[in-house]
């Protein structure tokens, strides 16, 4: 069945109705990798954010993803975790032709270089997230290091480390204590205001799984975007805040998950990003006993 075209006019009318105030302006937000994210300003002075699941393969799974984000935001309401408030959901895309989730807009903006203050604040917030106990458990986490990705990338200068990583992932995973996970926790999904974290966004992958996997994903993102030094600093800060380190297996799983499926370009594909991923995978594989 062919997909319906996205009806932005209908989506904005729906947002106006749900908030109870017309949308005056709509501006794209930077950073969205899976969706079109729009910042809306309403006639009553309020602001909201509209997620439209426009990009594949996430569009195909938009109903599940947006419903999960809504449920996660509802679960975080009243907790110390600064998550947006879910305002309305059109998971089936009846209005705009794609799954849509309307939520409150939190104050703040992205941070710059991840210094010690940033990595410590990230670690403390992640421990707070992991301490939450939603009344209904979320799905068991999905690995993004699918076997179809287990091909040594042609740009790697350390092919043996990748082969070792694939061999590790082919074996059994370590036992873990099931924990509430954001599952896409990273500096890219944090807002900052006056030197403190004012918001954590993008809850579509919320899951239950090993806490160290959430930490691993934050570290991998720091390594790819910046360097291995802030990635190490974050893991040390998280281990200190959480009271111990996790299995290196989860670090390897997350790093391998950054490889694209066969036939698709890497999501983070600039030469310097690929080189930093190569270095990070080499480092975390070396930690495996």
TrEMBL record:
It holds the Pfam family APH. It comes from the Bacteria. Residues 27-243 form the Aminoglycoside phosphotransferase domain. InterPro entries: AGP_Transferase (IPR051678), Aminoglycoside_PTrfase (IPR002575), Kinase-like_dom_sf (IPR011009). SUPFAM superfamilies: Protein kinase-like (PK-like) (SSF56112). This is Aminoglycoside phosphotransferase domain-containing protein. It comes from Nocardioides furvisabuli.
């Amino acid at each position: 069945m062919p997909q319906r075209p996205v009806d932005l006019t209908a989506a904005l009318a729906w947002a106006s109705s749900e908030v109870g105030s017309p949308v005056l302006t709509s501006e794209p937000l930077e950073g969205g990798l899976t969706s079109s994210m729009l910042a809306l300003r309403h006639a009553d002075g309020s602001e909201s954010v509209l997620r439209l699941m426009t990009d594949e393969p996430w569009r195909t799974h938009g109903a599940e993803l947006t419903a999960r984000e809504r449920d996660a935001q509802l679960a975080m309401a009243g907790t110390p975790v600064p998550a947006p408030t879910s305002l309305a959901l059109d998971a089936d895309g009846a209005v705009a032709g794609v799954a849509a989730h309307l939520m409150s807009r939190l104050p703040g903006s992205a941070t710059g270089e991840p210094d010690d203050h940033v990595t410590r604040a990230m670690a403390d917030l992640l421990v707070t997230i992991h301490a939450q106990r939603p009344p209904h458990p979320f799905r068991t986490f999905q690995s993004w290091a699918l076997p179809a990705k287990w091909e040594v990338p042609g740009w790697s200068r350390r092919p043996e480390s990748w082969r070792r990583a694939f061999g590790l992932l082919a074996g059994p995973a370590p036992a873990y204590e099931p924990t509430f996970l954001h599952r896409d926790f990273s500096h890219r999904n944090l807002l900052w205001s006056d030197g403190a974290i004012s918001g954590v966004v993008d809850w579509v992958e919320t899951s239950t799984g090993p806490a160290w996997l959430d930490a691993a994903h934050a570290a991998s993102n720091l390594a790819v975007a910046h360097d291995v030094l802030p990635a190490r600093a974050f893991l040390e800060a998280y281990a200190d805040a959480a009271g111990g380190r996790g299995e290196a297996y989860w670090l390897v799983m997350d790093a391998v998950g950054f490889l694209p499926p066969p036939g698709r370009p890497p999501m983070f594909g600039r030469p310097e990003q690929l080189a930093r991923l190569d270095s990070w995978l080499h480092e975390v594989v070396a930690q495996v006993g």
